[in-house]
Amino acid sequence: MNWQPELDELRRREALAQELGGAEKVARQHQAGRLDVRARILHLLDPGSFHEIGAIAGKARYDDNNDLLSFIPSNCVMGRGSVDGRAVVVVGDDFTVRGGSADATIREKPLLAERMASEFRLPILRIIEGSGGGGSVKTIETTGRANLPGGVGSALGFHYATANLAVVPVVALGLGSVAGLGAARLAASHYAVMTKSSAVFVAGPPVVARLGQDLGKQELGGWQIQTRSGAVDDAVETEEEAFARARRFLSYLPSSVFELPPVIACADDPARRDEALLEAIPRDPRKVYKMRPIIETLFDRGSFFETGMFFGRPIITGLARLHGRPVALMAGDPYHYGGSWTAEACQKIIRLVDLAEVFHLPVVHLVDCPGFMIGLEAEKAATIRHGVRAMAAINQCSVPWCSVILRNAFGVAGAIHQPAGRLSLRYAWLSARWGSLPLEGGIEAAYRAELDAAPDPEARRREIETRLNKLRSPFRTAESFWVEEIIDPRDTRRLLCEFADLAGPLLTPGPTHFAIRP
Amino acid sequence: MPASFPPGHRKIFSDLNASVWRVLVTEGQFVAAGETLLLLESMKMEIPVTAPEAGTIVAILVAEEAVVNEGDPLVVMLKSTG
């Protein structure tokens, strides 16, 4: 006799696992416009690539003969698969089983996913819904004890939540209501995306109501809250878009820090010149311009992947390609405080530069920065503390760096447009202007005595401004070699592609000398 | 400011904390999509606020030199149906 009966039993149990929390719960999930966890995994991964681990782990009931009566699978579905042909680990919460709560998870399943990502050096994709394996107070009754968070045997998940960030790409998708531990697992990632119908919070509306705050899910933790706060990087309309964003994010990164970012064939001419660049920057320094079209034209066509669009908006960050090589990109956005580095912009810069350092991405900085944000609100936000942290991140990173000064570079924030202690490439556009501080306001500070003594202080101020404006031409700076090169803006793409090619051989796989923080 | 606006109206909000430098439209005026409605001033830069779609200006909620915060409504528009 062969093992057919056991095989049948295995297949039966696997089939039960396919039913998730039961037809009714699954139908409710679909009616709410959300895919179930298995459909999500299938859509997220390459077709046919999902290899599940632990499908038949769950809670079973047996009859008096010890034959299986019923089975509820763990609400953690995990395994391996591929994205664009590259192996990944995927771990997803099943909201149809006890709302994704911990008492139905089996702690070791999500843990194994994180451990496999770490030890097999594979990117991990977390599909998060519910409390993401966190407990509810009901757990006290079902287990007969309260758990100490991080207590004996339960700290390993928290270990991997940070440790994996320094080893493999961690992408998290918030799809539905994401609370507590789920919110932590979402935020503890290199890239977190949520759908616009989802909500993310430390604690949901019923708990917050105890504070006297009567808020709906969206009001408390909708995408407009969480993308503006910077807790979540991106929001999209549909789950399909979230999968596409997650896959695309991974396309710029190596599978782990022990590899280099994947270089792809480039159909876009590296020497392409865009005539529009010669007039991209308005001559009037008070007039703003749109940075994103400049980014689109400088980098490989269609390669710009923006992250954190609604947070720290004076800085645009993202990933892109130059001559097929992935790079990290930061660029000032004059539409937001003239590109001044606010406390939030500094946090965004740190996140980008640390990501670049961990995954060996050269950095391109399109500089337009009139300085740190000023004023009372800026001081209260500890702009200078976050500013010097951004400075530290930039100075500590070791990946090749190229700065192009499009317009303003002023003050300390202007000074840290590139790492201070090593050689980077730097170009200035014809429209570049710089100084310790802008003339506007700077004159009042530096020429106070002279202005006070003048019969017409305003006329004297204008006189001084005209005089200084003549002297501060970038050509005078280049004459004394304070800046290496002033370039025709139309040559920028060619020079950036050359930079990416020069940077390629310098990239060194391996862990960074620091461990990145989320 | 009237208590209510016509059905289908759309408010245009400020993207940032700024002062209102110039108001370039008047109530009742028809504007094209992309037309500049007003200029905000922030960090010595003029930030244009543009019409997201063609329509009529129903109300202007701010005056020149007023200080506005991120998220404050600036202009109320009614989308062109013609």
UniProtKB/TrEMBL annotation, chain A:
Q: Which PROSITE patterns does UniProt cross-reference here? A: COA_CT_CTER (PS50989)
Domain of life, per lineage: Bacteria
Can you name one GO molecular function term for this protein?
propionyl-CoA carboxylase activity
The CoA carboxyltransferase C-terminal domain, residue ranges: 270-518
List the InterPro entries hit by this protein, alphabetically.
AccD/PCCB, AcCoA_carboxyl_beta, ClpP/crotonase-like_dom_sf, COA_CT_C
Q: What is this protein called?
A: Methylmalonyl-CoA carboxyltransferase
Automatic annotation (TrEMBL), chain B:
What organism is listed for this UniProt entry?
Answer: Acidicaldus sp
User: Which PROSITE patterns does the protein's record reference?
Assistant: BIOTINYL_LIPOYL (PS50968)
**Presence of the UniProt keyword Acetylation in the record:** no
UniProt domain Lipoyl-binding: residue ranges: 1-78
Record-given protein name: Acetyl-CoA carboxylase biotin carboxyl carrier protein subunit
Leader sequence segment: none
Which InterPro entries does its entry note?
A: Biotin_Carboxyl_Carrier/Decarb, Biotin_lipoyl, Single_hybrid_motif
Q: Which CDD domains match?
A: biotinyl_domain
Keyword Electron transport, does the record have it?
Answer: no
What taxonomic lineage is listed for the species of origin?
A: Bacteria, Pseudomonadati, Pseudomonadota, Alphaproteobacteria, Acetobacterales
Keywords from the UniProt entry: Biotin
